[in-house]
């Protein structure tokens, strides 16, 4: 049982880290608490699901193998949602950037609109099946290759984005803006396009997380209402780690993941229901002890 | 080079600038002096364009009217980054280094818009010659620098943007007299190297000592203007505005 918690908690933690990174990034850079983050997670899974058969129909006859197609669909879905995310940002959030309350109202509305659009466009569910099959045993626990792939890709992407933020010129502009918006503008940073780019990265990462969650952890079905839980989880992780802190996001993701698995193991019979309350409950408990989160001094993007 | 005409700025109804006219010729060193709250910072933020930019959590919506032209082009409706690109660089009040970046990273942010890698390298060398202490502290987080070092960093960072016109907001604020002297000497040296300077200060005596021409700003209006000699001749000006 311990082994089980160890392995599955780690996998969930990795995926949570990927999910929450985008949420903390857009907050750190533009100050936006994006309550539509989960909706981009959800629509990403649907678009991935639709792209699979479509790509197969055009690339299949050309001899492209069926393992390449899901990866291609994943990349295309992330790019598509990233572009859509930055347009949504520009049209709905940017004009009200100074007003936190209005942003919450607008982003939750965006989430509901996306849910309805998905319902109309894709129906009640769509298959997001694992794109690799088979499993192996790690310290006695059976783990699917899909879970391993999702975990490795999640952490790889996390590290990649972290390096981008710390070592690229655009990353430097993101950190500068998060520390002092006005002075960053005085250096010539075009904040409007920087916020749009950040939103694109943030929503693209949400899409990747959506595909990984549905194919590796959930039942392989995307449904239009699966945006609230990832939103709560992101929220809990990011508040727990300290809003805007990347290190905190990583640590927070693993804490929430392990607590979920621990609680599920203890309350086996009611596990499914109780687990849903874990992210928020954990967050509240930790905030009682450390009101600014584990790493929160203020916004920092180390 | 720079011309500000009938500039009016309101912050949510409260007036901060009330019909300001100033002019800076190519190669001049112009000073603006005025007490706290006169509108000096507002003037510089209007010129550099950040006054009307959208910003997270920025509740006030300043409104601006009047015209600002630079090298014959209207800039009062331009985005801040475009104004930087044209060569107007604003060194902000209270230095404001990016506190979680090293000295070197701060300097690189100054060169953010520049594509001439060689030129940036050369300017970095020049800035290190001008401020040897910054070279020593290049890998240190800027928040660990002293106030004087931070002011030098702010000026150096602005230089990295390759200004044609440098706007400097109260560089002497909070510095010990000896540091003040030093910072002003360096600003003068920058001016001598061909950068036009618009300096905003509360400290009257240093501005009189350094600027070619001085505007006196009070309550959002230009009270008077002239060279040091002209201003000193007028007894009222001397007593009321300069406190000398
Ligand atoms: N962000 C702001 N919001 C509202 N009022 C402001 C703001 N900044 C400055 N003011 C007001 O505008 C006037 C001029 O301020 P400022 O330009 O900072 O003067 P100075 O730099 O000469 O001290 C002051 O009355 C000040 O209270
Ligand atoms: Mg001021």
In short:
Chain A has about 300 residues and is mostly helical.
SSE layout:
The complex is a heterodimer of chains A (about 300) and B (about 240).
Chain A: H1 2-30, H2 37-59, H3 68-93, H4 100-122, E1 126-127, E2 135-138, E3 141-144, H5 145-167, H6 169-179, H7 181-186, H8 191-217, E4 221-222, H9 228-241, H10 246-266, H11 271-275, H12 278-289
Antiparallel strand pairs in A: 1-4, 2-3
Helix pairs in contact in A: 1-5, 1-8, 1-9, 1-10, 2-3, 2-4, 2-8, 2-9, 3-8, 5-6, 5-8, 9-10, 9-12, 10-12
Chain B: E1 2-11, E2 14-24, E3 29-33, H1 40-48, E4 63-70, E5 73-74, H2 80-86, E6 88-91, H3 103-110, H4 117-130, H5 132-136, H6 147-160, E7 165-169, H7 177-192, E8 196-201, H8 204-210, E9 213-218, E10 221-226, H9 228-233, H10 235-242
Parallel strand pairs in B: 3-8, 3-9, 6-7, 7-8
Antiparallel strand pairs in B: 1-2, 1-4, 4-5, 9-10
Helix pairs in contact in B: 3-6, 6-7
Bound molecules: adenosine-5'-diphosphate (ADP) and magnesium ion (MG).
- Could you spell the SSE succession of chain A in H and E letters? HHHHEEEHHHHEHHHH
- The Rg value of chain B, from CA coordinates, equals 18 Å
Beta-strand percent range of chain B = 25-35%
Mean of residue pLDDT values of chain A: 91
Largest sheet of chain A: 2 strands, antiparallel
Strand order of the largest sheet of chain B: 6-7-8-3-9-10
Counting DSSP H or I runs of 4 or more residues, the number of helices of chain B is: 10
Q: What radius of gyration of chain A results from the CA coordinates?
A: 19 Å
What distance lies between the first and last C-alpha atoms of chain A, to the nearest angstrom? 36 Å
Shape of chain A: globular
Q: Uncertain regions of chain A: pLDDT < 50 for 5+ in a row?
A: none
Distance between the termini of chain B: 31 Å
Q: Name the structural class of chain B.
A: alpha/beta
Mean pLDDT of chain B: 94
